[in-house]
Amino acid sequence: MPNFTRLLALVSIPAALAACSVTSQRDAGAAAAPLHPADPYTWLEDVTGERSLAWVRARNAESARALAVEPGFSASRAHLLEMLNSTDKIPAIARIGERMYNLWRDGAHQRGLWRRTTLADYASAQPAWETVLDLDALARAENENWVWGGVTCLPARAAAQEDRCMVALSRGGADAAVYREFDLASRQFVAAGFALPEAKSQLWWADRDTLLVATDVGPGSMTESGYPRLVKEWKRGTPLAAARTVFEADAKDVYTFAEVDHTPGHERTFFGRARDFYRTELFLQSPAGPLVAVDKPADALFWAHRQWAFLQPRSAYSAGGKTYPAGTLLAIGLDAFMRGERNFDVLFEPTATRALVSGGVDFTRSRVLLTIQDNVASRIEELHHADGRWQRRAVKSPFPGRLSVASQHDPALAQDDLAESYLVSYEDFLTPATLSLARTGSDDAQVLKRAPLFFDAQGMQVEQHFAASKDGTRIPYFVVLPKGAATDGSTPTVLYGYGGFEISERPFYSGAFGSAWLARGGAFVLANIRGGGEFGPDWHTAATKANKQRSYDDFIAVAQDLIARRISSPKHLGIMGGSNGGLLVGAVLTQRPELFNAVVCQVPLLDMARFHKLLAGASWMAEYGDPDVPAEWAWISKYSPYQNVRADVAYPQVLFTTSTRDDRVHPAHARKMAARMLEQGHDVLYYENIEGGHGGAADNAQRANLQALEFSYLWQRLGNR
């Protein structure tokens, strides 16, 4: 489950529009002519209906036949699976008590092993892992397609011993999950312990015998976005139905949340409601104290750490006689802030090129760790308060790729050997990840693990260029060129983008793209378009709602720049994107089809007239707008791919991919778009994993097969033939 920092600082569940004026506009137009024409393909919204799945299986068979004929498809799939199953991968670790836990998948453990070891042993070449839970064995025993959904553990407290956790198990990779209490000492589920049925739940440990739970408890307990509306206090040994409601949100909010701070001397509980994706209301409850509103700007990110409060406004914020630009990080004593004082210290101030990475604020016991991106390359700074002021130190670290930081401090422990330690990972397009253990106050770091080289990068090169968008804005993008790339427009090139929800696209190492694309002579391009968070909140808000078209203009500008530089050409240029990025490539497909010869559209949004009526879609209106409000539909309708595809326009062949078990972005978006394009006579391929969730695949074998199909398609469309 998301931790408190993530809940408040990067709301990971998209949001619903909550303005009362929207409701009144809907009501006023109720008697008018329908805003949206009848849709002949709504039957494909029946996710598991017999007719829908028959259509899916027929399309899957057609696509598999068309793509499996690509020379080397079987070998590529086998190699991709070998990389995914590699025992040389870096095991991602998370600290629970005094041990490090990892969820491991390989050829023998497709669902995964949840296992643990000590930090010292983890640093060795061959750690002695202890299996805690075997998901494959559990799935076989219970005849369920369990996929790991995460874990929420009771803080270790002073004894530094792991105790109880709530384990999330997802059927087929869906967001909805079953939760069961698990005993870490016995490595067994707790008989008659806490257990939640399948739902999009969140939970937090108040103490060993009390959970705060937000889940589906029947009519009226969920928001219109499909997320929990109530937080309940659930005592061990009592039925969930008897749990006491301690906080609630409105039905038109996105969801409600809580967090229990177990830090000795700073015990407190926060409750909150997400009004929409970017606006939250927060309340503080001290032990035995009343619930008090936290007077922060609705769109500001907020952290509480020990005696401090940290605030990052997403729009210009005036307080204490000063105005702070969007993206500034401010610090003040929490008690002083709650009293109404606003004499902030500025810990970070953005510039035209520098911004905090989304989620780039972390804490050791005494330090604040900032991950900063400067022209989309990462740096780390650490700050601490001493001698009455905040002192700053730049951390020497690799540059200019992607740095990721994870504090290892357990705030519930009074004595903690890792209180000033953090994990730092570095990678770039041609350099696999290195994971190190660092300590504040020093640039020295102990290398723990190095990821293997999955492709030969000798002779490849990375360049950063800038394209001029339609309104003149400079849009950065990275180009990864294969060895011996020509500058005559003949290089097969994949252009990838996202451009939404303030998510930054940063350099990353991909064994799949490296071996199946770059090593075979293809180029890869990563576009940093508006709508993302590469340059802070303003970069995002510049391309939301009425200005969403700017994301598509930026992406088109990058494509045109690639062609002008003769890095590629329309015959050899393809585009790829998933989720909001699927909407991106769908919109660009319908607007400028002559620029591309391939489109990989993954788990996409496409029907923007009905996105708010499908699964979690109602929660995304803060990004796109409300299609039931005529003034807002006026701008949405201009780019919605499903409404803009035409029979009399020539489009490149498109490959749509999605998952039946995706309960976040409804698979009907891809289904209906494919069906409409087929009806219009266009060349379309479609592949839907029957399981897999929003990630598109439930295990390594499914992932390898899907990737092999995508690369086969790209080579068929863009290869030099």
TrEMBL record:
The family database entries (Gene3D superfamilies) matched by this protein are listed as: alpha/beta hydrolase, Prolyl oligopeptidase, N-terminal domain
Task: Please give the PROSITE patterns that the UniProt record associates with this protein.
Answer: PROKAR_LIPOPROTEIN
Q: Show where the Peptidase S9A N-terminal domain sits.
A: 38-437
InterPro entries (UniProt xref)? AB_hydrolase_fold, Pept_S9A_N, Peptidase_S9_cat, Peptidase_S9A, Prolyl_oligopep/macrocyclase
Signal sequence bounds: 1-18
Q: Which UniProt keywords apply?
A: Hydrolase, Protease, Serine protease, Signal
Q: Which residues form the Peptidase S9 prolyl oligopeptidase catalytic domain?
A: 516-720
- UniProt KW Protease keyword: yes
PANTHER family, from UniProt? PROLYL ENDOPEPTIDASE
Q: Return the protein name.
A: Prolyl oligopeptidase family protein
The organism encoding this protein is: Caenimonas terrae
